[in-house]
Design brief:
about 850 residues; alpha+beta; 26 strands
Length: about 850
Amino acid sequence: MNFRTRFSRFSVASQGLNYKLSLIFALFFLAPIAGFLYFAVKYDILSDEHIPLYFIVLLLFSFIGFFILRKLFDEVSRIAKTFSKILADDFPQSGTLQPQDELKGIVNSFQAVERELRNSFRHLEKKTEEIATLKELSDLCFMTFNTEDLLYITLERALKLTHADIGSVMILEKPKRDTFVIETSIGLGDTAPKGMRIAFADSIAKHAVINKAPLLVEDIESDMRFGRRSRPQYATKSFICMPLKTINDVIGVVTLSRRKAENPFTQEDVDILVPLLSNAAFTFDNLRLMKENEDRSAQLKAMENLSAVINSSFRSSELLHAILNEIRNVIAYDLAVIMTLSEENPQSLHIVDFQASIPVSLNRGHLYPFNGAVFGKAMTQQKPLIIHDTSVLNHPVDREILHQQGARNALLAPLKVEGRVTGVLVMCNVSTGALEERGALIETMADVLSHAMEREKLLIDFARRSRELDTLRQIGGALAASTFDMDKVLKHTMDMLQVLMDVEAGSLLLLDGNELEFKMSFNVGMNVDILKGVRFKIGKGIAGYAAARGEAMLVKNVKESQYFHADFDRMTGFETRSVLCVPLISQGRVLGVIEVLNKRQGEFLQGDLQLLQSIATTVSIAMENARLYGETLTIAEKERGIRNMFQKFVPKEVIDKITLGTEERPVIDEFKIITLLNIDIRGYSVLSHKVGPQKTVAILNYFFAAMGEIVFKHHGIVDKYLGDGFLALFGAPVSRAADADNAVAAALEMQRSMEDVNDYLQKRFGSTLEMGVSIHTGEVVVGNIGFEKKMDYTVIGDSVNFVFRLQSLCKPWPNSILISEKTRHACEAALQVEEIGHHAVNGDFEEMKIYRVIGRQQDSGGP
């Protein structure tokens, strides 16, 4: 121990308040007292009796003052010790050494408290700032439903809290979670644009996701976990990677960095970010769940709308566009293309339809080979295929359909029906989230689309078959109604072929010897008249080869056919691209050919060949029937002449019954109830004397022709002529329920026609006629009456006699109509009649009422 050390033990600075108090008391009291005593003894001051008393009092008061000061200094020492203990307990970081000087200890304690208060105040300010940020973010969570705004503001606040100036938010891409997608960034510019994709395996952020804990890197170049140089866009080697954690999983990360390299991140920065990012992740997850719920609702609505569209009246392109519109409502796209396998070339796809909101150069119906293209890959794997960047595709078909049409990305969904792939649905420029998150929905919608297309195809096939059958029925109907007018039938057939098969041109050629002659043609854009009468040798051209071989020919490209000759095109100016030719064959003999040219939509298919063969068979039968009809036409004409002559003497119904019935002649003695009509001319004898026999015959012929036509019109027959009248039958040989009505209707029409008859007779012969008509309904015997060499089809019986007796009652009323009571009862129509009395049927027994017919009740007036 040296002198300085020994001396320091006695120094005032190292002593406590009690030592200092004792030293002060000694200096201020004992020293003066000792000096005073010295002078008092030396100068004999103590001899005064009051002096000792004064010193005693002075000493007493000095000790009292010393005691009071000692109490005060003890209190100060206690306070100093208390402050030191409190400081040691509450602020251990301030140090535990207590100085000997209590006042200095108090000062040090107050300084330590001041430092802690300042630190606490700064901490409180920071916490206040954090709370304000969290409150702002919380308010934003309630005000915004946009995840992009939420993530950007979260990143902005995180940068502010940690005094960082570079950051990004990356979300894991679903469903595979093998890729980070940058949702927002600050301070990185074009280095990390929104939507940029980073492989999970290549990113340092994967450690934060795997461990579900913050990743704090103070120096990436010295950190043994990474050991790589800091990238140029980051000015510092220190950074923080914070996971965005929800209740179930980590959805992404927030990465922060500073441009000032001398200020690395600390654990305190990490702790500050935890509540902010937890709240942001929770809100982001809630917004995402809300969006997923909205998406599901939209998807369900879309599926309902798809079902409604499929069950609607939409057809063909209208149906496909309606389905694509519903898909677009759920998954936005710029271009959608529907492609299906070609029936003729299974290794190619053809564009059925497309819908675009961007300019495209696609053509419906164009064929594309898919081997080696992404379309073939999608069809092979039978799962939706995502192309994030179409510019990497090298196949010519891929580039033509995707890249050249302005497609940045594409989703290819195979179209499947009952486990077999029928085509592919292509959607271009779909949002990245929709590409990954809605794969199942897209696959379902593609299945709906494929089933709708299959249903539409079946309906079209059914409609086409129905049209084909209808065409065949029409041709058959035309044949039935044409009375073998083959020119009319063939023209009708060719007109229907033009519409049904949707072709540009067609011809029907008939074989004449060893040549084919153009009989019927139709064409759009060429002069058909040029072909009339044109002939060419059998075996020449496709039509000639089909006629020579008796076989159908289907040529899709005439330039590749060895049988095609261009004479037809040179003659007409028509350009033939494809030909379907079918021979007309009857009983093994070729009659001609039907050929159609250039199908407007697509190519000729096997179904077209079958349809044309069916039509050709029908036409062949019709032509053969026409030939047979022509051969028998002469015999038919002779039979018709005999029939017409025979019908003048025998009623037409009798001839029909003889011709069409199974019996050789009507049954003799057939009892039937019929209605008889007798018409008689008044004053016939006077007329014949007046005009002479020749004019009388002419007058009678005209009168009987007019009245006979009326009888035939009302389903009656003229049974016999009686000089100046005739007897007509209604109900023989064929009975009808309205026989009585027909007879009365015929009589009324005869009555009305008398005015025209008399006008003609007056102008021609200078004479007029009057008549009477009697009608009766009763039982008669109908049959062939006579002997073998002379037979008449007629009626006999009392009813016949009664209708003649009834005729004699007509004389008082010129041109009148009398009917019996039985006829009136047999009529279903209501008549306006006037009763004129009774008359015996056979003179001995029955009498019946007789009526004069005024007209029908619905008529406006009488005759």
